[in-house]
UniProtKB/TrEMBL annotation:
TM ranges: none
The protein's name in its UniProt record: FAD assembly factor SdhE
Origin superkingdom: Bacteria
SUPFAM superfamilies registered for this protein in UniProt: YgfY-like
Keyword Hydrolase in record: no
PANTHER family the record matches: PROTEIN EMI5 HOMOLOG, MITOCHONDRIAL, SUCCINATE DEHYDROGENASE ASSEMBLY FACTOR 2, MITOCHONDRIAL
Keyword Ribosomal protein: no
BP-aspect Gene Ontology terms: tricarboxylic acid cycle
Organism: Roseovarius pacificus
C-alpha cells in the first residue's frame, strides 16, 4: 500500500533529523521544517533519494566544497540558500 503524504512527510522529517553528522542534522531538519510541506511529489522523490546519500558528500555539496550531482543540484542549491539565511 502506498504511503500517504502526511506519513511520508513525517518519515522524511525524521530522516532529516537523524543523520550521521550533527551539521547535516541541523541543516536538513531546518530545511525539512521550512520546505517539505510545499514540495511536489516529484520533488519529495528527489529529496527522499538525497537522504540516502553519504553525509560527508551532502555536507560538501551544501557548503559548496564540491559540486552536487545533476539530479540533486537544484535541491542542494535550495538547501544551501536556506542554510545561509539561517546563519
Amino acid at each position: 500500500m502506498p504511503e500517504d503524504r502526511q506519513t511520508r512527510l513525517k518519515r522524511l522529517r525524521m530522516r532529516s533529523m537523524r543523520r550521521g553528522i550533527k551539521e547535516m542534522d541541523i541543516i536538513l531538519s531546518r530545511y525539512a521544517d521550512a520546505r517539505l510541506e510545499s514540495l511536489t511529489p516529484e520533488q519529495l522523490d528527489v529529496y527522499d533519494r538525497l537522504l540516502s546519500e553519504n553525509d560527508q558528500d551532502l555536507y560538501q555539496w551544501v557548503t559548496g566544497q564540491a559540486p552536487a550531482p545533476d539530479p540533486f543540484a537544484s535541491l542542494i542549491a535550495g538547501i544551501a540558500q536556506d542554510s545561509d539565511a539561517s546563519r
